[in-house]
Write a structure and sequence with these properties.
The protein has one domain: Glycosidases (TIM Barrel), CATH 3.20.20.80. Helix content is 38%, strand content 14%. Strands 1-4-5-6-7-8-9-10 form an eight-stranded parallel barrel, surrounded by four helices. The protein has a two-stranded antiparallel sheet with strand order 2-3. Strand 8, helix 9 and strand 9 form a beta-alpha-beta unit. The radius of gyration is 22 Å and the shape is globular.
């Protein structure tokens, strides 16, 4: 009898030890679920290159201009992949890709979310992204003369993103936001250089190709600039519900104009209503005011947008651009006249930094 009991006990232990954790759904559903559970509980605050450098420092462990001003890290960490496609060791902003890997993994392990943008050099002649008159897109699509060169670029991106693993060698989930601001005329994938149909093909091909490389933790953001005012205009370049997970908007222009916060709110309302219909997430994927010359910009302008009732209940995150030096920054540094105002915004209920984000997830 005792032997039978011991055998049963051992079998129960073995069975409990062999329970298989449900496999994460493909295409980043776990991260999608995390963001959907967050909806209405707060808006994540993000900052580009936050851990890599700031005003007066670079590559100091545990440093962050957001941390220095607000006492906590951002909940979202933005990174740039431009230059990777040419096998450069550093990106457009001088960040070594090896260091980016380390910092993105650290951010994930602390509970934050990483998002990657990509300003690639042209596969045709290696000109940078800011050549809005260069006809590139139609030549790199399937059947184009430079299609294989484009595939080589995608292979470099896939290799880097596939290598993002935590200490347990588990893939790091991330948001990928390619081919942004296509409704503007400054990029070679923009309104002057390709048609909406060519753009949609480019976007779909990019995501299908990367998913085919096994990037199961990738979720995808679509982010036009702020030129739209209607659903039809917002969706003009939209590549499809099966490709996109997050509907975003980049908006610098409105938020440096008189009464621009109300224009930004109206556009976010358009975006949010589309996201509701399509069961997608909504985000203010890029914004900021260079040099922050308005000492109340964070609470009175950005804060007015984020505290709008519809925005507050539906926006997943907002991300401001990077702090490169005292001549190019979007978040105040300690001692700057807008630092106290930025801290005031980030201390408001519903604007979430890293620790608050982690508390909500418990």
């Amino acid at each position: 009898m005792i032997k039978n009991f011991i055998l049963l006990y051992i079998l129960l232990l073995l069975f409990s030890g062999c329970q298989v954790t449900p496999k994460k759904d493909i295409y980043g559903k776990t991260l999608i679920d995390e963001l959907k559970l967050l909806k209405g509980k707060g808006i994540l605050f993000g900052h580009q290159d936050d851990l890599a450098y700031g005003v007066g420092w670079e590559y100091l462990e545990g440093e962050s201009d957001v941390m220095r001003v607000a006492g906590d890290f951002p909940a979202m960490f933005g990174w740039e992949l431009g230059g990777l496609e040419l096998e450069h060791e550093v990106n457009l902003d001088g960040v070594p890709f090896q260091k980016m890997d380390e910092l993105a993994v650290w951010a994930c392990e602390q509970g934050g979310i990483n998002t990657f943008s990509w300003h690639p050099f042209s596969p045709i002649d290696s000109v940078n992204s800011w050549h809005g008159d260069s006809v590139v897109v139609k030549h790199i699509l399937p059947g184009g003369a430079y299609h294989e060169q484009f595939n080589h670029q995608l292979n470099q991106v896939a290799a880097f993103l596939s290598n993002l693993k935590d200490q347990n060698r588990k893939p790091v989930p991330f948001i990928f936001r390619p081919w942004h601001e296509m409704d503007g005329d400054w990029f070679w994938w923009g309104a002057k250089a390709c048609t909406p149909d060519e753009y949609k093909t480019l976007f779909r091909y990019t995501i299908d190709y990367l998913r085919g490389k096994g990037l199961s933790e990738m979720i995808v953001a679509y982010s036009p600039d702020c030129t739209f005012s209607s659903e039809e205009e917002y969706l003009l370049w939209y590549p499809g519900d099966d490709i996109v997970d997050i509907l975003g908007m980049d908006n610098y222009y409105d938020l440096k104009q008189p009464d621009g916060e109300n224009r930004a709110i109206r556009k976010l309302h358009v975006l949010i209503e589309i996201a509701k219909t399509k069961n997608k997430l909504a985000a203010l994927t890029e914004t900021g005011l260079e040099l922050v010359p308005d000492s109340n910009w964070y609470t009175q302008t950005l804060g007015a947008v984020l505290n709008d009732s519809l925005v507050k209940q539906n926006l997943s995150y907002v991300m401001v651009w990077r702090n490169d030096s005292e001549k190019h920054f979007y978040f105040p540094y300690p001692g700057h006249w807008a630092a106290a105002d930025a801290k005031d915004l980030l201390s408001q209920p519903g604007i979430l930094l890293l620790n608050e984000f982690n508390q909500i997830k418990k």
